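Sequence in, structure out.
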Amino acid sequence: MAAQEPRAVTRWRRWLAGLIALPCAALALFLLAAWIGSSLPRNPDWTEPAEGVTIMVETNGIHTGIVMPVISPVKDWRATFPSAGLPRADGQLPTHVAIGWGEKEVFLSTPTWSDLKPATALRIALRGGEGLVRVGHYVRPAPSEYHRPLTLRPAEYARLVERVEAALPPLAPGETRVTYDSFEEGARNYDATGRYTLANTCNQWVGDTLAHAGIAMGRWTPLAGGVMKWVPEPAAPGQPASGATAGKASS
C-alpha cells in the first residue's frame, strides 16, 4: 500500500494550484466581459454618409488610434499639435495625424511589448497610470485592413474633434504644449488628461471618442478587436466591404 502524502504537502499543493488558477480565471473573466461589453451597441442606428470628412480607425492588433486629415473645413490640427505643421524626416509635410491615447510610462519608456517591465504591468493593473497622447504624422495613408476609413458628417466630425481636444490639458494664453520623443518613428507625445486603467484603456478611449461623435460602437472596448469589429474593412475595387456594416457589430 502506497504511503499517504503528508497533509501539509497536500495543502501546499492545493494552495499552489489555486494561486496558479486565480490569474487564469481572472483573465478569462476579463476577456468574456470585454467580448460582451464590446458587443453591446452605442449609436446602433448610425449610417455612414456618402460625403463628409473621411477619417481612419487604425490598429496594430493591440492598440487602436484615430487618423484624421491635418486640415479640413472643420479643424486645422496644426493649431493644436505644432508637429503636424512641420516636415517629416523625408521632407514631406503630413497630410494626416494619427491620434492615440495611452499610459504615459509605457509610451515613453517601452519601445516594444517585450520591454514592458513586470512591475510596470502590475502597477497599471492595480493602480493605473497617467494618460498621454501620441500623435503620428502620415502622408496620404492608404486604406487597408489596419487602416479602415469611415466618412463622418461635418457635425459628427466636429464632435470627434471636441472629444480629442478634451483629452488635452488646457493651455494658458501664449503657452505651448510640451512634447516628448516617441519610439514610433516620426511621432510625438503630448501631455494628456485622464487616467489609464484596465477598465479605461487606449482602446476604450478610441471607442468612447468614436461613440461621442455618434458612430456605432460597443459600450466597453478595452481590447483592439472590440473596436475594430465595428469598423468595416475597406472593399477591394468592385467588391462590397467585408466585416461589419456601418451601424452593426460583426460577430
